[in-house]
Design a protein that fits this description.
This protein has a domain of 58 residues. Helix content is 30%, strand content 20%. The strands form two sheets. A four-stranded antiparallel beta sheet has the order 3-4-5-6, with no helix packed on it. Strands 1-2 form a two-stranded antiparallel ribbon. The longest helix is centred in the last third of the chain and has 27 residues. It is α+β, with helices and mostly antiparallel strands and 91 residues long.
């Protein structure tokens, strides 16, 4: 069984080198965390080397750390837009 590069598992948060359990050409390889045995996939965020959670019906596209950081950016952008709309209505 081959292994992928080191990265953090979104289930157990350990830095692991997961085992490939299903090799794919067009899709991401299905991997298993050697620490917690969770199903994980490479994060689709550019320059990220961590792993996203795999599920029974849906596999996450991003790891938990990219989701948290992108959520913060979206929230900040939304706050700026709302502040601009309110400022325009007041002026």
């Amino acid at each position: 069984m081959s292994a992928k590069h080191f990265g953090r598992c979104s289930f157990c948060e350990d830095r692991v080198k997961p085992d490939v359990i299903e090799k794919n050409f067009f899709r991401r390889d299905k991997c298993q965390c050697p620490a917690c045995e969770g199903i994980i996939y490479e994060c689709r965020s550019p320059l990220c080397h961590d792993y996203a959670k795999g599920g029974d019906y849906y596999d996450d596209e991003l790891c938990r750390w990219c989701v948290e950081s992108s959520g913060g950016m979206i929230k900040t952008a939304a706050e700026l837009i709302i502040a601009a709309i309110i400022a325009k209505k007041i002026l």
